[in-house]
């Protein structure tokens, strides 16, 4: 299989071959018919992976608060990208491992569940992904499309919103590559008779402010309260609007967006978050989250505008602090990470805090602070404004 992965990496797969691979991967294990089990149309979302990407954690409660069942299986982080399950595990008591029956019951009765993918769904992906990781063959459009879509199709949602990250911190570095991946995943979805939309989103800087598990949970709670960072809030509302438009509520995207915004405003999204976390055994109180013993400001060296923030560099700084894993078996420190207080386009004064490092000790804090500062570039003039959602396909 390692030789196969390398052959695909160098030669590529055509459409028919990608369908065949996806199909074979789905058939390597169990599949779930969520529609039949829940008795309603169920929606799902997936991201190709980025830095500071906690989108599902906010989208799930919003969509569920609007009355649409949301059942999702998520993965763990590897390398500079964080994983939704690791973020959820920073909540004391939270259980990511539910049986399929518990998962279905919770989506049906509570409206929302996010769990780890058990060994029974697409076991071929777990094995193949492990081999791709050690043979440097992760980064291939067909292999990524088959890996993501086999899991989404086997997990059984009727409609799926795919967040395809583009830029320095993503697998897809250019918009052209992201479009190719999006088109391939749309085709695989059509083939399996699922409704799919792809939002291509900016991963040239970390998403929101927080990078690191408990810090990202805090930012999720703030966003559900209506106090989230603008880029993250925009992506959450855009993804929620797509999901609501796909649902059986019979609303279009504009009405979906209004409902999503209303669920944040009236507190129902935050109340849903709290019920969901408690239902999976976790303590939803923000004060229950772990905090790092050392917090160090990273100060701006001069006056100017933030021109860019290297997402991979920030992701790697957080990883080295202990927020991520070098190998699958590494243990995570849920409290540590980086807050990028200033983002692209923000004006900074000399000595003003650009970022904050949350660390286990002074030494690792000082090292991470240097790395985070090196990730920032400054300009004299305001850089052109960009939007978080670059394009929607499907
Ligand atoms: N996410 C996946 O699940 N698989 C890939 O191959 C890449 C990102």
Blueprint of the fold:
Elements (H helix, E strand, L loop, with lengths): L1 H10 L3 H12 L7 H5 L4 E5 L7 H11 L4 E5 L9 H5 L11 H11 L1 E5 L6 H12 L6 H15 L3 E8 L8 H17 L3 E8 L7 E2 L1 H12 L5 H17 L6 H13 L2 H12 L14 E6 L4 E6 L1 H13 L13 E4 L6 E2 L4 E7 L2 H14 E4 L9 E5 L1
Parallel strand pairs: 1-4, 2-3, 4-5
Antiparallel strand pairs: 5-13, 6-9, 7-11, 8-10, 8-12, 9-11
Helix pairs in contact: 2-8, 4-10, 4-11, 4-13, 8-9, 11-12, 14-15
Bound molecules: uracil.
What ligands does this structure carry?
Answer: uracil
Strand line-up of the largest beta sheet: 1-4-5-13
Radius of gyration: 20 Å
Q: What can be said about the biggest beta sheet? A: 4 strands, mixed
User: What is the general shape?
Assistant: globular
Please give the domain count. Answer: 2
What string, H for helix and E for strand, traces the elements in order? HHHEHEHHEHHEHEEHHHHEEHEEEHEE
Low-confidence stretches: none
Number of strands: 13
Distance linking N and C termini: 32 Å
Would you write up a description of this structure?
With 394 residues, this protein is of the alpha/beta class. Helix 4 packs across helix 13. Helix 9 links the parallel strand 4 and strand 5. The strands form four sheets. Strands 1-4-5-13 form a four-stranded mixed β-sheet, with helices on both faces. A four-stranded antiparallel β-sheet has the order 6-9-11-7, sandwiched between helices. It has a three-stranded antiparallel β-sheet with strand order 10-8-12. The chain has 15 helices and 13 strands. The longest helix is centred in the middle third of the chain and has 17 residues. Helices cover 45% and strands 17% of the residues. It folds into two domains: 285 residues, Pyrimidine Nucleoside Phosphorylase, Chain A, domain 2 (3-Layer(aba) Sandwich); 89 residues, Pyrimidine nucleoside phosphorylase-like, C-terminal domain (Aldehyde Oxidoreductase, domain 3), CATH 3.90.1170.30. The site of uracil (URA) has 8 residues, from helix 8.
